[in-house]
Amino acid sequence: MSDTVYKKLTLLHSNDMHGDFFAEKVDDTLTGGVSMLSGYLTKCRNADPNVLYVIAGDMFRGSVLDSEFRGLSTIEIINHLAPDVVTLGNHETDYGVAHLLFLEKMATFPIVNANLYIKSNNTRLFKPYHIVEIDGMKILFIGILTEEVIAQTKGESFIGSYIGIEDAAIEIGKICNAYNTIDIDLTVVLTHIGFEEDKKLAKLLDPSWGVDLIIGGHSHTFLEEAEVVNDIVITQAGTGTDQIGRFDILVDTTNNKISSYKWSAVPIEEDTCPKDSRIRSLINSIKEKTDLKYAKIVANFDYELTHPDRWRQTELGGVFADAMKESLGVDVYLMGSGSIRKASMGPIVTFQDFSECYPYDGKSYGLKVTGEQFKRMLLHVYRDEAWIGNHTEFYQLSKGMRVVYSKSQHRLFECKLNDEEIQDDKIYSIGIQEFHFNNLKDFFNVDLEEIKQNGEPRVLTTSDVQTILEYFGNNKHLGFDVDNRLEVLE
Description:
There is one protein chain. The protein is α/β, with parallel strands linked by helices and about 500 residues long. The protein has two domains: about 5-290, Purple Acid Phosphatase, chain A, domain 2; about 295-490, 5'-Nucleotidase, C-terminal domain (5'-nucleotidase,  domain 2, Alpha-Beta Complex), CATH 3.90.780. The strands form eight sheets. A six-stranded mixed β-sheet has the order 6-5-4-1-16-17, covered by helices on one side. A six-stranded mixed β-sheet has the order 9-10-12-13-15-14, covered by helices on one side. The chain has a five-stranded mixed β-sheet with strand order 24-20-28-23-29. Helix 6 (about 165-180) crosses helix 7 and helix 9 (about 315-330) crosses helix 15.
């Protein structure tokens, strides 16, 4: 029997970058941005030839540099970072699947995804795996996408996806079984399903398939250390470019497994990460094209309004919900909390601030619902999953609403509109965004056919962005008090 052979590998990873291209001052230290991220990657690659860099989804959205050019600029920037493998996130589909396939042609890096397929003939849209050969090692990467992409692509009737993690586990097994005979030294699943779902997925994977690592995204989880489930190491690197995940692995190439590893989240800071002047010049040249358009002031708030997270009523969320309610003339507007992408905005708001905060333009629909249906919708939104950090849909209530919900009893103690209890048999007009209308059953637990019995849904606006900006332009010095709209009892 031959002696065991060990080889070193450094595996660097990012996820949920969301157009976080520029460095920022944090406690007087310049932090993040792709210039220093690129500098760190170059430093690592120069120090050791056995270095790989991967991205676990959501390169797009979050920056006007991305949205203005519909991802073209982002692909150009990521090309410069030269990742070895990238998997898709849900926001890679924001500009449409056809446009995503165009962007793939621009990419100089491989994109893997085992989930998306064409319904008519079950043909996958992307290669489900990629094998990287480095220093005599063969490393298998498999890409798995979140269920949320199905919500984003409901309008793409020819596109399908394997839905649950059980189905995803089966697909991983098929790929591993097909390529285990190639003497794969390390198997890495790149996911975009959230950290809690990653742990569930790990439990479903047969150890004989040989999966060693799950590197994930979507839940923006910051970790102190990697977690191990079913002998599979699971991690992700928060969000943005302020840090990068780093594995230093000793690979047992004789037995095709990890012998030992060390993982850490490495801060991207000016003291340790040299700047890449070439990528900085590239970004600045793109930024020059957007500055004039996006410097226009579009709103004045009385003070900075905040949106600390999506699972509570927020100042910024309330202002957005109110803008839509007042403009569209509905009884209640339910603004998707996840549509608001910044933790704060104002008091002076430029078009760039607004576009980065609310990057999703689209239609809004008006529905007629009974009071009983409306309360059922809220109870589904406030189910247990909403409070534990999962990426469930949550909603900002427009003014006039007063809801008191008990977590322990799973019931509404109050559900009022303009100080009057919502009546089960009364009809109310509700406004929601197109994305949420297209996923009515999943997000609200009501069927469209059931709603149609109260009246046909109709488009209230073809552009949420135009509606909100018009409201901001006509209502100066906006402020907001969130205290009375939603009260959650522990």
